[in-house]
Amino acid sequence: MNDPVLLTGAGGHVGQVILEGLREEYDWRLMFHSEPEEEPEFPYWTGEVQDYDDVAPAAEGVGAIIHLAGDPRPSAPWKSVLQNNIDGTHTVYEVAVDEGIEKVVYASSNHAVGAFETEERTPEMYRVHDTDRLDGTELPRPGNKYGISKATGEVIGRYYHDEHDISVCNVRIGNLNEDHPPIDYERGQAMWLSPRDCAHIHQRTLEADYDYEIVYGISDNDRKYYSLERAKEALGYEPMDNSAEWDGDERVAGGN
Known about the structure:
By secondary structure, the chain is α/β, with parallel strands linked by helices. It has helices spanning 13-22, 52-59, 78-99, 145-164, 186-190, 195-207, 229-235, and strands spanning 5-8, 28-32, 44-46, 64-67, 103-109, 167-173, 212-217, 246-247, 250-251. The protein has a 7-stranded parallel sheet, with helices on both faces. It has a two-stranded antiparallel ribbon with strand order 8-9.
């Protein structure tokens, strides 16, 4: 990717992790919801992601967009997800078409299929075989309104790929809340995404050739119930971390 890359939601946790890991790799353009506390080292804009006139100047001349902006709360009410997540994603794609941008990477979420986790499960759900893992071909099954917005964003991307030939990768991001995996509950270990794996998978979305993809953004955790096969095959994703190779804050023997 030789052209600049626009990162929306640059002030959020995922955005900061991506920037930290890939700072030197790309010529970034950043979009924030509000003025950042410190002056960024890359050109930046502030505004509402659902406002075309706010997004378009930030996207001028870029080759790809990593779209993270939106309300990230699983408990977010409908009015907020409709405006910030659904309308915002639609606006980003409209801008991409008008600016001739060929690739959009969309920050989807495990919440797009979160209701699969609400079924009665045994501890064995965290020790499934490859054929039992969710792989992105399953229908969306959101467990909250935030999940509805993420599943809708994936469908919006499907339309813009089919109608306008934009390359679209939807990354269903897992648990990036901590620099190390939670050690006190299995679900957190199953869906953990380490910071360096987060940066790496997004780098692969920028470098790989694909049409329309849905992949899971987690590390290669022993207890995972999301499949990484599509991310590996379509993107060349090579996760480096595994929640089972940590003991508290330290890696156990055999870790990288």
